Amino acid sequence: MRSSFRSSGSSGWQHRKIGVSRCSRLCVSGLKLSAQRLLPSRCASTMSKVEARKRRSQLFDEEKQRQRSELGRIEKIEVTYKSVEDDVVMVMNRNISTPYDCARHISENVAKTAAIALVDGRVWDMHRPFTGKCELELVTMQSPKTGVVNYAFWRTCSMILGAVADSAFKDHVDVHLHSFPVPQIHSGSFIYDVFIDLPNWRPTDSELRAMSALFIKLTNQELLLERLEVPCDVALHMFQDNPFKSQQIPNIAKNSDNDRVTLYRLGDYVDISKGPMVSSSGLMGRVTVSAVHKLADGPVDGLYRFQGIALPKGILLNHFAFSILEKRAKKLNTAMWQPHIEGEMINVTASMN
Predict the structure, then answer these.
(1) CA 29 to the chain's CA centroid
(2) 305 pLDDT tier (thresholds 50, 70, 90)
(3) Are 203 and 60 in contact (CB under 8 A)?
(4) CA pair distance 107, 173, nearest whole angstrom
(5) Which cellular component terms (GO) are annotated to the entry (predicted)?
(6) Distance between CA atoms of residues 347 and 344, nearest Å
(7) pLDDT digits over 253-287, tens only?
(8) Which end of the chain is more exposed for a tag (fewer CB within 10 A), N or C?
(9) How far, in Å, are 46, 174, 271, 339 from residue 39 at the CA level?
């Protein structure tokens, strides 16, 4: 039997080999008619999943370098770091230096534990360059500003879950990431919706454990969450092999403040999100990919909702308590993808703290 999951000997991230007894029947099935209309031949990629990720990451690097080369003369700015003990004024580079750079000037421990930043009171990614003179606060996962940091933590977990889903299947299985809705912490799970050409697929416990292992591997690598705003045409070029992202990008750019699309990169995995994200995948502690549900009433046929639960690093729960969270996270999360409210949710979350 052919396995739909990657084995430890295949290209991509390593994990244990999973046998799927029903795979021969599922993997030769054609796309549903409605899905075929969203997967035109021009979007059909001849690249492997690994090659597609590397291509996207390379384009990310090229655009980042292009933007850097257009900056011209470097302008110095003052960043006032607001700490508990005292205020510290740092001279940084406008449109180049980031809160993470400031944190490293303070100490490596501060840089490692800071999850997100507040720049003049506004939620700001740790790897997002400063645009002018400002006041800076650094927020950790144990900060009293729980609303802001929890939102970023769950959004980052969703992105990592997308990276897991994107890499877990072999190349003969068509997989296209669709979207991940605004985090709703009270729902009990973070989620990512994915098109998979495996009709009526139900993951086994072994497959869920394999995906959890992939997630944990990414957290152990302590990968930075890099942020980059790009023009619409650049985003379309990067995601030309994904029909859903290609369809969403023009609307995302149209509804942004500057007609641009915000991207994040984790290792060689690039995705679209308005953010914010936490600084590093290393801020995640205990994690479980808890369930995958087929969406009966999704925006397109063939969508599966991947769900997971995670704790911040350093937050400990006994096995019984965490099992309660896992059980809750197995239930279908009914959150809906509504891209037009993401900015509003971020602002509301920030104002609550």
Answers:
(1) 29
(2) very high
(3) no
(4) 46
(5) mitochondrion; ribonucleoprotein complex; ribosome
(6) 5
(7) 999 989 999 999 999 999 999 999 999 999 999 99
(8) N
(9) 14, 10, 19, 22
Sign of CA dihedral 125, 127, 132, 138: positive
Sign of CA dihedral 313, 319, 321, 326: positive
C-alpha–C-alpha distance, residues 119 and 211, integer Å: 36
Per-domain residue ranges for the chain? 76-140, 147-338
Task: For the chain, report the end-to-end CA distance as a whole number of angstroms.
Answer: 54
Measured CA to CA, the distance from residue 31 to residue 301 in angstroms comes to 9
Tokens of 108: 């490596």
Instruction: Output the six-digit token pair for 113.
Output: 């534990």
* Of residues 222, 272, 276, 266, the one with CA closest to residue 251: 272
Determine the CATH number of domain 76-140: 3.10.20.30
Spell out the CATH class of 147-338.
alpha beta
Q: If you average pLDDT over each of 24-33, 194-203, 263-272, which comes out highest?
A: 263-272
